[in-house]
Amino acid sequence: MTASHLSLEEGTMSGSPADDILRLVFSFRRLAHGPADGDCAAGTCEECYALHRPKVERFIEQGVPLHFVIPAFPAKSPNPQKVLGTLPDMAERISLEFLQELCDYTRHYYEPGARITICSDGHVFSDLVGVPDETVRAYGTELEAVLAAIGADAINTYGLEDAFPGFPYEEQRSMLTSHYAVPVEEVRARTLADPGARDIFGGIHRFLFEDRMALSTGRSRNSVREETKSLAYQVIQRSDAWSHLVEDFFPEALRLSIHPQVSHSPKIGIHMMRTRDNWLTPWHGVALDDGEGIRLVKRHEAERMGATLVMRGGRVSHYIAPNVSASVKPLIEEVAS
């Protein structure tokens, strides 16, 4: 598969179709390692399977495709040190191809396969992260075009405007929080008490701080850090509200996440591309061809190594690492007779 070149031989394991499918998904897990992870910090345990097996088995009993939901693909980060622009590029394309291939690969274990609903959360917190709603809408329109271009017929999208149609985005956000959000004070208390929630807060806060610092001039790091700390609690509040809405609208679906999750979470954190950063996502980075495949890095990291910018269709697409041609393997390899 695109994300890690998984072969069918690697994915073929004896067991029930439900466990084989979960084993496939778990092979791309984005884990938040913590004290509670214990024996499954480096793999999986029976409890990991038991949390999700009933949902998989229900789909199999009904003879219909498995249904995954993943809140993801909100909009590009506003930080030019991380991304190439405001529209989807090769990073999104590779990630969408991975999700489609994940659905395809499930057919090896269960013929109806799977489908994925991308629950785009761009409008959920666009005002908090400094991305205009018009930019979010343009990103979503181009994302649909990419899905069509790659023939991703197992993927559909769902957004805030689908949940609350006919209302301005600001009213949609108000309706989301009034129906599904808990008070920010409760989010703050949970963050202080729960190591998993604290890890999520740390990742969100880091993203916000990096983006706001890149766009701020004449401000101290401490003042920006304090501002983004408050924003992080609000982003988590709305993100949790969106998660609750998605669970309400799609109660039978298996829940994927682009954030690292502890092993025994009701959500399965998942990587869609090779990366060395457990928190990096396609909308916070760029695609880099390093000669062994395409991995996700931040724009400034690609430029620091002297990578070459590639254009596709008259638009910025991705980077190629320097001297990559020296490490490329031939397409046909001679074998000893």
TrEMBL record:
Transmembrane segments: none annotated. Pfam families: DIT1_PvcA. It comes from the Bacteria. PANTHER family: SPORE WALL MATURATION PROTEIN DIT1. This is Pyoverdine/dityrosine biosynthesis protein. It comes from Streptomyces fradiae ATCC 10745 = DSM 40063.
